[in-house]
């Protein structure tokens, strides 16, 4: 069972990202919403004492956020769905990096422990510390994007598992030899079928991956969402906020609600949960 870990973003982070998406500053948001600018600054600094229910409603409506999810975040009760029913085992590996936590995921056959790895944390030593005993052999590595916090451990994993190369978004610049995967391209490895989605926004070269059990096309699928979709939030749109939002909607609209989402930060969730509650998507 995955360990319960905190959400990546709290209300203040969501507010800050939503402001950036809307192209507004705090003063402009205050003028449009009628919420005092001091309260907005306080919320961005994670102080919510003065924020009333009516303020939350006004902020959500002005920023076009899902009000139910936004209020749930404010009340520290964002819904966390049960993660079950996948036709394979997923092992999330949570590693501290800077002030936060970054995730990698091993997806393996439950009986043999053989499978594939998505992202690798900032360094192999950190990955080794959290490596589950049940994961015995990795036959391919897939990278969502080339930032050090996700990619730094890749060379160590390749060496340890005797792999010559890995898969990543087309156009990535990390100085390593890799096999580029673009939109819709599918790789079959071990018992898994992995399809890439090109999802720029957090950075220019970013992939999400849909994982299915080979030969079980109707079975529940897993989305490795990298820094595109988090439980209760989205990744930062450092390359382009507009594209990130478009891509997140595209992915969440395209997949069945039962699809499990495994983000680069924070806990796992489902497409149905994020469709219903994610402040940016619902
Ligand atoms: Fe990240």
Any overview of this molecule?
- This protein is 30% helix and 24% strand.
- The chain is α+β, with helices and mostly antiparallel strands.
- The strands form 4 sheets. Strands 7-8-9-10-13-14 form a 6-stranded mixed sheet. Strands 1-2-3-4 form a 4-stranded mixed sheet, with helices on one face. The chain has a two-stranded parallel sheet with strand order 5-6.
- Helix 1 (11-22) packs across helix 3 and helix 4 (53-63) crosses helix 5.
- Bound molecules: fe (ii) ion.
- Residues 102, 147, 149-150, 227, 264-265 line the site of fe (ii) ion (FE2).
Structural classification: alpha+beta
Encode the helix/strand succession as letters.
Answer: HHHHHEEEHEHHEEEEEEEEHEEH
Mean pLDDT: 95
Strand content: 15-25%
Shape: elongated
Cα end-to-end separation: 27 Å
The largest β sheet comes out as:
6 strands, mixed
Keywords:
about 280 residues, 10 helices, alpha+beta, 6-stranded mixed beta sheet, binds fe (ii) ion, 4-stranded mixed beta sheet
Question: What are the SSEs and their pairings?
Answer:
Layout: H1 11-22, H2 26-33, H3 37-44, H4 53-63, H5 67-74, E1 89-97, E2 100-108, E3 114-118, H6 124-129, E4 137-142, H7 148-151, H8 154-160, E5 167-169, E6 179-181, E7 186-189, E8 192-198, E9 207-213, E10 222-226, E11 229-230, E12 233-234, H9 241-254, E13 260-263, E14 269-270, H10 271-277
Parallel strand pairs: 3-4, 5-6, 10-13
Antiparallel strand pairs: 1-2, 2-3, 7-8, 8-9, 9-10, 11-12, 13-14
């Amino acid at each position: 069972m995955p360990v319960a870990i905190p959400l990546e973003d709290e209300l203040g982070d969501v507010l800050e990202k939503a402001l950036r998406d809307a192209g507004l500053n705090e003063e402009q948001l205050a003028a449009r919403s009628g919420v005092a600018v001091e309260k907005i600054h306080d919320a961005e600094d994670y102080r919510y004492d003065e924020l009333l229910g009516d303020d939350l409603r006004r902020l959500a409506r002005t920023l076009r956020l899902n009000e139910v999810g936004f209020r749930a975040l404010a009340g520290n009760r964002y819904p966390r769905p049960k993660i079950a029913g996948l036709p394979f085992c997923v092992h999330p590996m949570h590693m501290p990096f800077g002030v936060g936590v970054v995730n990698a995921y091993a997806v393996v056959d439950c009986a043999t422990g053989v499978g594939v790895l998505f992202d690798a944390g900032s360094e192999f030593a950190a990955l080794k510390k959290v490596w589950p005993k049940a994961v015995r052999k990795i036959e391919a590595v897939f990278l969502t994007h080339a930032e050090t916090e996700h990619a730094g451990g890749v060379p160590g994993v390749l060496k340890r598992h005797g792999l010559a190369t890995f898969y990543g978004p087309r156009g990535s610049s990390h100085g390593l030899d890799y096999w580029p995967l673009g939109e819709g391209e599918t790789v079959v490895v071990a018992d898994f079928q992995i399809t890439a989605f090109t999802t720029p926004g957090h950075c220019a070269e970013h992939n999400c991956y849909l994982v299915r059990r080979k030969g079980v096309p109707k079975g529940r699928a897993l989305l490795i969402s990298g820094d595109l979709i988090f439980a209760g939030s989205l990744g930062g749109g450092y390359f382009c906020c507009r594209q990130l939002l478009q891509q997140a909607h595209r992915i969440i609209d395209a997949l069945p609600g039962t699809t499990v989402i495994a983000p680069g930060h924070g806990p796992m969730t489902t497409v149905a949960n994020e469709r219903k509650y994610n402040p940016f998507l619902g």
